[in-house]
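Known limitations

Files may contain more than one protein. Parsers should not assume a single record per file. Below, a two-record file is shown to illustrate correct handling: read the sequence, read the token line, then continue until end of file.
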Amino acid sequence: MEDIVTKAENVIKNISRDKYNNILLKTNQIRKFLSAVNVVANKVDVYKATNQDNKLLSEKLVMEIKYLEVMLIYQVGRDNAANARLRPVEDFVKKAKLRENLQAIGNSIEKFEEFNRYMEALVAFHKFYGGKDK
């Protein structure tokens, strides 16, 4: 099993590019989702601080993580409506296996934290390899 850093780098190296080899996925296309993940991560940190012996997420946090998938699907849908031919958000979500990774979290604090680090690595490599804001 490859580490999340290598996995994230490989995803970004292989996402859709234009004829000039520029990454088609724009930062603003994933910013809302990353922000939502960060909000949940902060809630998980608070939960961990008050429930130190617990390795499982509360039902409320599990539902918030499931809602992240809805937000992700919405971003893919917006991308499809705006640009029916290229679909860089859909390409990114599929290559990064974001839906599958979200579903695999279940109620595990550890798996959520790993997903959060994966998202951060994806965004970092997106910027490193030339991802633009607009």
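...continuing to the second record:
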Amino acid sequence: MLKSFEHVGMTVSDMDRTVGFYRDLLGLSLELRKTTVDGSDLAFFDAGGGMLEIMAPRGGAKRAADVPDDTAGLRHLTFLFDDVDTIFAKLERAGVQIKERPRPAVHSEVLYRVAFVRDPDGILVELAERTRGRNGQGTTQSPVNASL
């Protein structure tokens, strides 16, 4: 029987920069950071409903590329916030690369507002607010039926 989502793993080029983004800017809790036997850096962040495993190979890594629509793969990471506009403003002030400014979610049945930014390696990160009533969480505002 399934218990929960555990973690997603990803490769990054610079652990310190990545910790600065996910812990210091997004607010994830750094649970473990260590150097592996092969000299790579490894970290686990608690994301509130699962973990994010980050590995930085000793020799570095190339910048991430977006997965084309017709190719299988991980398209983005999504993190849930109380207020997308507030976290977006914080990231913008910090100089984070912006992909899409806050807007009503297309799938208003599950999400209320979304925005997209890139982490230090170009990985697409979605910032989201839930629609009211979804699992007892979400905004107190009425869902928007957007056609974007």
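Parsers that stop after the first record will miss the second one. For reference, the second record is described as follows. The first strand starts at residue 7 and ends at 11.
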